[in-house]
Amino acid sequence: MLLFCVALLVVGSVWREQVGSLLWRMMAPVVAHNPFAGVVGTLRTNASLAHENEQLRAALASTTAALADRDALYQENLGLKSRMGRDGSVRALLAGVLVRPPAVPYDTLIVDAGRLQGVSDKALVYAGGTTIIGEVDAVYDSTSRVVLFSSPGQIYQGMLMESSVHPTIPVTVEGQGGGTLSTQVPVGSGVAAGDSVLLPGVAGGYVAKVVGFETKKGESFTTLYLRMPVNVQELRFVEIAK
Predict the structure, then answer these.
(1) 209 and 187 fall within a common domain
(2) What would the DSSP string read from start to end of 1-40?
(3) What's the rounded Cα separation, in Å, for the pair 173 and 179?
């Protein structure tokens, strides 16, 4: 009996590596094609999609609420102006966008309404509601060229609307190209990202929002970087003020 046990120990020590290698070769295909791996991956993917979906729903709800609030304020604003004997509404002509960058210079559009449709030179152009994106630069019989406020060299007067930390600040806004603009305000004005820039006047109109700022050492003015609220590449229609 003792000799049999000793023999087993000797054989096990000699063949241990070979037996282990054989067992691994037999189990490797099963491990590589684990039938439960796909199930685990699917569960993780579904959980990730559910979380992302919930985030998108929350963002949509927030945006919807903001738009509803803005529309209510706009209607209230029109009502107040009407009671004061001023008409703040804008009568506009709908025009389709025919050509956009890069087929034309950046920050310009060609639209399918012109002189025959009642378009006039320098008319303000809206991207829906009270969002103003530029003005008519040239009028032809059935088409017009629109130059956006963000076009390099475009300079106009605007108002940085009041917030909880600063009053309304008049500003001179300059186009920088690619849907971006810039302006300057005195250092310490309390301007923050998200503040809005509007055109002055009874009708007014939303032009851009602050997305960043920079104050260089020793200077008394802060440079504000602005961005238009629309993507020109996605615009299908615009409204031209009459």
Answers:
(1) yes
(2) -HHHHHHHHHHHHHHHHHHHHHHHHHHHHHHHT-HHHHHH
(3) 13
Beta bridge partners of 64: none
Task: Report how far residue 147's alpha carbon sits from residue 228's, in angstroms, rounded to the nearest whole number.
Answer: 13
Closest CA to 133 of 240, 12, 57, 35: 240
pLDDT, tens only, 212-242 = 999 988 889 999 999 998 888 888 999 999 8
Give the Cα separation of 192 and 181 in Å (integer).
16
Whether 105 and 198 share a structural domain: no
Q: What count of residues does the chain have?
A: 242
Helices (H), the chain: 2-32, 35-83
Q: Are residues 108 and 212 in the same domain?
A: no
- Whole-structure pTM value: 0.62
- Read off the pLDDT of residues 39-97 as tens digits, 9 standing for 90 and up: 555 656 777 777 777 777 665 554 444 444 444 444 445 455 455 555 545 678 999 99
Query: Could you tell me if 218 and 184 are in contact, meaning their C-beta atoms sit under 8 angstroms apart?
Result: no
Are 237 and 227 in a shared domain?
no
Report the amino acid identity of residue 92. Answer: A
Tell me how far apart the alpha carbons of residues 208 and 213 are, in angstroms, rounded to a whole number: 14
- Residue 83: predicted pLDDT: 56
The reply to whether 118 falls in a domain is: yes
Domain encompassing residue 160? 155-231
What residues have CB less than 8 Å from 47, skipping those under 6 apart? none
